[in-house]
Every structure is written in structure tokens, then in C-alpha cells.
Write a structure and sequence with these properties.
By secondary structure, this protein is α/β, with parallel strands linked by helices. It is built from eight helices and eight strands; from the N terminus they run αααββββααββαβαβα. It has helices spanning 3-17, 30-43, 51-68, 117-125, 127-140, 176-195, 215-233, 246-256; strands at residues 71-72, 83-87, 93-94, 97-102, 149-153, 161-166, 200-203, 238-243. The strands form two sheets. It has a six-stranded mixed sheet with strand order 2-8-7-4-6-5, sandwiched between helices. Strand 5 and strand 6 (161-166) form a beta hairpin. Helix 1 packs across helix 3 and helix 7 (215-233) packs across helix 8 (246-256).
Length: 257
């Protein structure tokens, strides 16, 4: 199967799953087809999928990531001992774990084609991830607390695991408690990574997007928490601060030298 054939197969299969989308027109343009497929992935509720669907989906998503280009940790140079700064798409980095800025439901972003990291991770990992998260949350019996973390397999992305954490949502002025909760996100992910034998972890800029945490203060907390954790635990875990925006890159570069 060629990539275009896989994409059309997946679109048709997802359309047939839901009465609301059965008569949805499929555009001829490849870019628009990709947007439609992503949207259909985004709105799909957690549920098992047929083996044939998963096989085609996995091949399609892995090829999409390959075409974007995968970055290996060995290709990066540390800016400080065991600490890296890398600007790029976090879904394309091959390390042991990447951090997902999740919401309290922990099921991924249901907004079609939204630009958040949660949406991207759930899209390119595949439908298995939402089902895995739903099982975790059913066992837990309540929404995820802010500042805590969960670990899942990464499925179709080049990393091995996801560490999902819920950052604080800022309403009004930033408080001391907000800062403590953000620090707890980083520490919870690091502790979970150590417990599961991960040797490297890539952090996104937790809470700075839709959750409105000030970028400069968030970066200070991120760097300080990582350094304190490594000093207190003598951890040798390699930490990658993943940046997407140029403005965030400047903030982290100034902090890390």
C-alpha cells in the first residue's frame, strides 16, 4: 500500500465508524486529506480497533514521522552536563520518554486539528494511546490531579514512552501555588522516568500554551526543578528541554548558557 492508499483507507474506516461522518466528502488534495484524517483521529472516542485498521494505521503514522525526520539523542550536544536544548517537533525525537502536557481527563485533545502538544501526540501515536489512557483513568476512578504524572507506551512515535502530566491553569495573577504545582509536574515526570528505567526524557514547555503560565517563569521553574532533582538524587538521566517557539528558545538559552 502506498501512503495515499493508506490515508484513504483510514479516512473511510473512521467515517464508517460514526453515523455523523459517513457522508462526509473526502477532498482530492493531499494536504486537506491529512487534515481530515487528523480531525477524525481527534474526535474518535477511546475504543478498540480492528487488527487490519491498526496495521494500516501504524504503517501510515510511522511513515509520516519518518518523512518529517527523526532526531536521535546521539545527534544532540549537551548545553550542560546531561542537559540538552533542542528546538523542533517533539513527536520526532527518539529518546526514552517525551512529556505530554495533558488535561485532567488524560484522554488527549478532542478538538479537531488543534495545535497543542496533546493533540499532536495522540494523533501520531495512534488510536491505541487514547484507549490505553482511558483504561488507566477507569482504574484510577477520578480525574488526574495537577502536578502528577502517568506513563504509557509511545506506540507509533520514535520514543519509547509518554509521560503525561497535568500542569496548572492560570486564572488571573500567578500564585506561589501555581509555581509549586508546575515544579511538581517536572519532578513527578522525572521520578516516574527513574522508576521505569528511562535514561532520557524530553520536556515540552508545560502549561505555557492554553494554560497561560508565563513563559519566562515556567522556564525558570523547569530548569531549577531539573537541576535540583539531579543534584538531590544523583540521577544520571539525560534531560532535553524541547522548544518549539523562537521566543522560548531564547529564554532557555539565556537560562542554560
Amino acid at each position: 500500500m502506498k501512503q495515499i492508499e493508506r490515508r484513504k483507507y483510514l479516512v473511510q474506516a473512521l467515517k464508517q465508524e460514526n453515523e455523523h461522518y459517513k457522508n462526509l466528502a473526502v477532498p482530492d488534495d493531499a494536504a486537506e486529506q491529512k487534515l481530515l484524517l487528523r480531525a477524525l483521529f481527534n474526535v474518535r472516542m477511546p475504543a478498540p480497533a480492528p487488527e487490519e485498521f491498526l496495521a494500516v494505521q501504524d504503517e501510515y503514522l510511522q511513515e509520516e514521522t519518518r518523512q518529517k525526520g527523526v532526531t536521535e539523542l546521539a545527534e544532540l550536544s549537551p548545553v550542560q552536563e546531561d542537559i540538552y536544548l533542542w528546538q523542533g517537533d517533539i513527536t520526532t525525537i527518539a529518546c526514552d520518554g517525551i512529556v505530554n502536557a495533558a488535561n485532567s481527563q488524560m484522554l488527549g485533545c478532542f478538538c479537531p486539528n488543534h495545535g497543542c502538544i496533546d493533540n499532536a501526540i495522540h494523533t501520531y501515536a495512534g488510536v491505541q494511546l487514547r484507549l490505553e489512557c482511558a483504561k488507566l483513568m477507569r482504574r484510577q476512578g477520578h480525574e488526574e490531579e495537577t502536578g502528577r504524572a502517568k506513563i504509557t507506551p509511545a506506540y507509533n512515535l520514535p520514543c519509547r514512552y509518554f509521560l503525561h502530566t497535568v500542569g496548572p491553569i492560570i486564572e488571573g495573577a500567578l500564585t506561589r501555588r501555581d509555581c509549586e504545582l508546575l515544579s511538581s509536574c517536572y519532578r513527578s515526570c522525572l521520578e516516574l522516568a527513574e522508576q521505569n528505567g528511562l535514561s532520557s526524557i524530553a520536556f515540552c514547555c508545560i502549561s505555557t500554551g492554553e494554560f497561560r503560565f508565563p513563559n519566562d517563569k515556567a522556564a525558570q521553574i523547569a530548569v531549577q526543578t531539573v537541576k535540583e532533582f539531579k543534584a538531590q538524587t544523583q540521577s544520571e538521566i539525560k534531560v532535553i528541554f524541547n522548544i518549539f517557539k523562537d521566543s522560548d528558545y531564547e529564554i532557555y538559552r539565556n537560562l542554560l548558557g
